[in-house]
Design a protein that fits this description.
mainly alpha; Four Helix Bundle (Hemerythrin (Met), subunit A)
Amino acid sequence: MKKLSTALLLALLCSTAFAGPGEDRQKSFKKVLLSFEPIGVMLRDGPFRKDQFIKHADDLKAAAAVPFTLFKPNSIDDVSRAKPEIWSQPAKFKAEQDKFLAAVSALQAGARSDDLATVRIKYAAVTQSCKSCHDSFRGPKR
């Protein structure tokens, strides 16, 4: 049993050590999504729990910029859905990034508000920012 556990641990370590840039970006964006999805569920389906909402908004803010640091030149691999336009149109990609980060900041600030109508608008701005960037810079599933 010990040998099997050691072998599984070693296999896991090796697989994460050799993750490529596409997989690294996907994992990083999934961390963003893990904070963003519960916010949407609370706003759509309720119940709205302000303390949990604030925690998710704070976590979202902390994770939001990280994936963008992983778009190094020539980092398209078999897992990546990144379009080459990320690197051929860097000013446009940066503008999308800035728009997203500003929307996340506004949502985080609004999370402490009791005005749910305004919070929903801020949430929608983050959603729209994601869609806008995906439309320009994310390719189809392979």
